[in-house]
Amino acid sequence: MSETVFGKIIAGEIPTDKLYEDDDCICIKDISPQAPTHVLLIPKKAIPRLVDATAEDQAMLGRLMLKAGDIARMLGVDEAFRLVVNNGAGAGQTVFHLHLHILANKRFEEGDGLGL
Question: Which of 19, 33, 71, 115 is deepest in the core (most CB within 10 A)?
Answer without folding.
Answer: 71
